[in-house]
Design goal:
The protein is an alpha/beta fold. The chain is built from eleven helices and seven strands.
Length: 336
């Protein structure tokens, strides 16, 4: 009887140990195979953009609500969408007379102007998959290309970073154009004929996107770069742009866009070489990384748990040239 009890006790100990080992293996393998969930948002949702953390939250919410109402009413109508494909609804800087320059002083954001180089370059010029079909006569999708791009389930964190960049830039331009703050967009010259423009055949999706995010705002202007894959403006446009900014008394010029070390650097180098670096800054939280420079390890570091770009990491990466593509020493600043 004593021997039998000893055997049963030993058996229970073995069973408990086995269960413990199995549970431990399951826990460890489960942790190893399950990556952190990538947070996503509805593609048409506007988030409080970078540079607004010091603003009155009620004012921020009011502007975001105004954007969302406009997006779901005015810009969802077939008539407006059809019009958005026909022409760019913001003014070219070269069409603004010198007499009109003074009118733009009121659009400065506490003395600052924003310049965005080649916004949304990846979805329109780098991502080869078309996200729209040629629309049937009289029918247009209510979703623009960026909304369709943001609706894609991210297969990994690298793609999630690219989506986060597009959402951040879109929301920033939507917000600042609605707030009527001065933005100058550098648009790729003759992009509609560029061989790598994914929507070269069919309706001009890039034009529609630019029209939707700038909201027909009087505070937004555009300048063309010399080509579709370089960020340099023409010498004439560079001089005109600087004369314009000096005449309205811009104290700071915040530059973002894409890509770091590429078109973004082209513009910054050209601009500062001609006019010096004082008051001219690259903004990490508005600057896009090329997919060529986004490794898996980098994607893990730069994407926050809530699915946004980590500003501190983005800033450190630019300062240290983590991407190994920056050839020009630049002055870097975060938005106030």
């Amino acid at each position: 009887m004593a021997l039998k009890n000893q055997v049963n006790t030993f058996r229970r100990q073995c069973e408990n140990t086995l269960l413990y080992v199995i549970a431990l293996i399951f826990l460890l393998t489960g942790c190893a195979s399950t990556s952190p969930k990538i947070v996503t948002y509805p593609p048409d949702k506007i988030l409080p953009p970078v540079g607004t953390s010091s603003m009155d939250p009620q004012k921020v919410e009011k502007i975001i609500k105004e954007i969302q109402v406009r997006n779901k009413t005015v810009e969802d109508s077939p008539e407006w969408i059809k019009r958005a494909y026909k022409r760019l609804m913001i003014r070219r800087l070269s069409n603004v007379s010198e007499k009109e320059y003074a009118d733009y002083k009121k659009y400065l954001d506490n003395g600052a102007a924003y310049i965005i180089v080649h916004p949304a370059y990846f979805p329109f010029f780098h991502y080869p998959k078309r996200l729209s079909d040629t629309p049937k006569e009289g029918f247009y999708s209510k979703q623009n290309i960026i909304e369709k791009f943001l609706a894609l389930p991210p297969p990994d964190r690298r793609f999630a970073v690219l989506q986060a960049q597009e959402r951040r830039t879109r929301d920033f331009i939507e917000f600042k154009s609605t707030e009527e703050k001065l933005i100058i967009i550098i648009i790729p010259k003759n992009y509609h004929r560029y061989s790598r423009y994914t929507y070269r055949k069919g309706p001009d999706e890039y034009m529609r996107y630019l029209n939707e995010i700038t909201n027909f705002s009087k505070s937004v202007l555009f300048v063309e770069s010399r080509s579709a894959n370089r960020g340099y403006p023409s010498e004439e446009d560079t001089i005109r742009l600087m004369e314009f900014l000096l005449s309205i008394g811009a104290k700071k010029i915040y530059i973002g866009g894409g890509y770091i070390g590429r078109c973004l650097e082209d513009f910054y180098a050209e601009f500062t070489e001609e006019f010096g670096r004082k008051g001219i800054y690259l903004v990490p939280e508005l600057s896009d990384i090329s997919p060529r420079e986004i490794s898996n390890s980098l994607a893990k570091r730069i994407l926050t748990p809530d699915g946004r770009i980590d500003i501190a990491v983005a800033t450190t990466n630019m300062k240290r040239d983590v991407y190994n593509v920056q050839e020009v020493s630049s002055d870097i600043i975060n938005l106030p």
